[in-house]
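new request in #modeling-help
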Amino acid sequence: MLVVLGAFGIASVLVPALTPRLGTRVFLLAAVPAVAAVVHAALAAPAVFARGVSERVPWVPALGLTLDTRLDPLSWVLALLVGGVGALVLVYCRSYFRNDEPHLGAFAGSLTAFAGSMYGLVVADDVYLLFVFWELTTVFSYLLIGHYSSRRASRGSALQALLVTTFGGLTMLAGFVLLTTAAGTSRLSELATRAPEGAVGTVGAVLIVVGILSKSAVVPLHFWLPGAMAAPTPVSAYLHAAAMVKAGIYLAARFSPAFAETPGWRESLVLLGLVTMLVGGWRALRETDLKLVLAYGTVAQLGFLTAAIGFGTRDALLGGLALLVAHALFKSTLFLVVGIVDHDTGTRDLRKLSGLGRAAPALAVVAALAAASMAGLPPFAGFVGKETVLAAMVHAGESGDVLGWIALAGSTAGSALTAAYAARVYWGAFARKPGVPDVGVIRESPAFLLAPAVLAVLGLAGGIAAPGLDAVLAPVADVLPAEGEVEHLALWHGIGIPLLLSAVTIGLGLGAFLLREPIARVQARLALRRSASDAYRGTLSGIDRVAARTTKVVQRGSLPYYLAVILVVFVVAVVSALVRLAPPLPEARLWDQPMQPVAAVVMSVAAIAATVAAKRFQAVVLVGVTGFGMALLFADFGAPDLALTQALVELVTLVAFVLVLRRLPARLGTKHGSSFRLGRAALGIAVGAIMSVVALVALAARTATPIAVEFPRLAVDGGHGVNVVNVTLVDIRGWDTMGELSVIIAAATGVASLVFLSSRSDRMPEFARRSGLSLLRGRSGRPSADHDDRGSWLLAGRTLAPRNRSILLEVVVRLVFPALIVLSLYLLLAGHNAPGGGFAGGLVAGLALVARYLAAGRIELAAAAPVSAGALLGSGLLFATGAAVVPLFLGVDALTSTYLDLDLGWFGSVSLVTSTIFDVGVYLVVIGLVLDVLRSLGAEVDRQEEEGDEPSLAGRLEAEEQRRWTAGAGARR
Amino acid sequence: MTASLALVAVMAVLYACGVYLLLEKSMTRVILGFLLLGNATNLLLLIVSGPAGSAPIVDGKESEPYSDPVPQALILTAIVITFAVSAFLMALVYRSWRLAHQDEVQLDAEDVAVGTRETQPTEAPDRGEPDTPPSNDQEEAGDPVPADEGSAR
């Protein structure tokens, strides 16, 4: 079965590719897997009827999903139908389409893929696999219905079918989840025999019923099927008569052993089925488009099938299955016939067709065979099925089942309507009508007629060879317990109520057909103002309105509001989880070391003061205090690396803040002040309180042995370094650091691109080379010509105005800069074995650059770092990636490190570890980040200030646009 | 496990102040709130990393068990990323000020527009109502549009 499925898959890919070469002949190729499915089923028949054939391949073992397929008698019957009718319809397509049909390849591919999905649906033995195929048939049906994609109606109908059946499919999925969770298995064959009982079983059954209703077009979800007639006729014949709409019936039959006793299952299927049968039959008498007559006829028949199979007795199931087979045969025949009529005459309107029976006698014979089967005339398969169903209902009624009598009455009335519209179809297509000109001469093509003819003859054979059909279908029906004497499919059951009823239905049907004109008048008067598709449309526009209103309420455009919503949800969710779970809390003491409370008090005071600070610098410094407090806490906790990094970062952050804030007004929130103070404070306190509980709970949850116990050993043996934190960063968890470097590079690039308004590149390096070198030359070449009596301690000191210079600062920086660079290199190289590393080293080097910049301005910065920040970032990433990738070429895992002991004689020995190269990458990236911040927020801002405060033209335009937007938003509010 | 209430308390205060500032309109305060939240979260990681101890450096000088190095590596990464992101935020503030002399969080005009838009059914073209009456003469062998079930005939 999986091989057949694979063949379908391959064919559906090949077919579109080959269409340009083969034209419509490609349909013959597409029919190959369908034929294979039939052959496979035929060959497997003995095994199937003996014990069933299963194949099982793991799919997603982690989720317990398997590709479980199984052919048992029920699947076998449907697989034959799907494959056989599919093959015939594909052969028919070859004549139906012309080579110049638009999107022919896509159509052929979709049809093949649909056949494959349908085959998968009937052989799947896992409910989730079944669901996947179920939805695949929906998707392909969407594509096929919407084949004439240039027509709006086509697209609309396709979407309608998609929405309705997907809604049903998802509902059904919920049912599957309920049932599999309760039953502990997702195997269809197990679920279908012993479904969970009680409320779960009932709810699951109801949800599955919704899926059945949507797929098999049963009231109230029937309206998509007539709309789906926008599809090309072969699609209607296959999807909407033989295959897809049978998926729901298949599911009803599959689950009938499990749910026959479940309250609601039987009643809902039978009653809704009967209503559908009557509604569909009534509407079929009103339509004038032959295809729509057949479509409503299909709705009616599907209702009958649902009622029969949902009826829940063994004999009704047997009759329903016979009807299912008969319906697949006669209804696809009729659709194909209508396709030929449409093809030959150019119309499907039964008011315009006249005399076709004489012009195309072979076609008329084929149609007559199918229509007779549909009407339930002996000796056709339709008659056999209907008789058995009616007999089963009589039997149930006689044994005291009220539903039996109701079903019998409904089915009889419905069957009469069926006979009437069967006559109407035949009459409409082939009869001679007064006042309508006859159709012209028609040349019948045997190839075109082949598929419907085969199907029609099979329908006749099924009736005549009823015992043969019985042999196949009885094992399927035997899954339900038989009461008393079992029924057999046969043409002659003797004279009894069913035969009498059959005669009555045929008589009534013919009467209704003869009285068609009075009935049409009555129908015109009774025409419903509201219909199910109105409800569908109302639902859709209702959803639209609700969505718009929700958006209006929720999307206010205020970011703080959104943030507050998120935080409120967070508070509510965590509180309810905490209340429900009541997790244990750890023991507590006031502090670990006496330094903690001191730091805590200072930090808390600073944080609270920062929230009310009115001046920017004040607030920034107060937040900085909390940062340095963090460094203290880290140091105290036994985390020297953290303390070092935190302190350095805090310094750089302060500098960056100062650089930005010098251009902003000193006071904070001058325009609107701060609003909602109390609310925000309450939310803040709530978040803080919850986070403290979270911290305690998380700490109490630390009961397992942490993975960290292995890290010291890993660091020393594998990473050849004793500073576990550093080895973790550059070696053990090197990939994480790699990800972090990418984040840093993205942020640094973002900073630069936000600040450099007019040009994308920073021109400082070039500038440095020119002006820095010329300054140098100027100093060395003409020392006496320098009239600046204060001399120059830094390269670019003289570029500043004298009032901006601080000679003391220049001297200090001149002296400290080399020391800082040496320190940074030391931290970088020593980091493997002592506190430090690439992060700390890079920050120290960055601070050295900060010092140069602060002392002598942007030109000094350019002279101090005559490379672009981008180059630093890039080369840093290159180093890190190199350290990660090179080991791959040496045949070991990425980021594997090795080491080399170098004996340097007098200087002692040095151990070089390759992960240091990774750390060099980190070092360069961090320097690049700091340099980017300095270049952007420092140097470029300086330049912009020196060149006048006016932003560039583009900047002004953007600002103008932004103001207009803001004004517009304000006005709308 | 024993918790240090001092650490927990200061973390709670940092979170509370951070959230308070984050909900401000002034972008500078938002950045400050972001920094406070960053510090608070690093503290959270530190608290849940278990007991304090010796620096995790295997040099034979440790007097008590190591503090857990794994959360420390996480925190170290977080510290640097927080700096990178706050630098980005500062650049945003600077740009906003330079272009529009605006240092407050603005209403999102697009969101407001979405919320106030009048939705009419006609705005969406395809919603499943075939709108053309059936006409069978469109093409020779085509499949005409089916009639809409809803329109009573």
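bot summary: Residues 114 and 500 of chain A are 42 Å apart (CA to CA).
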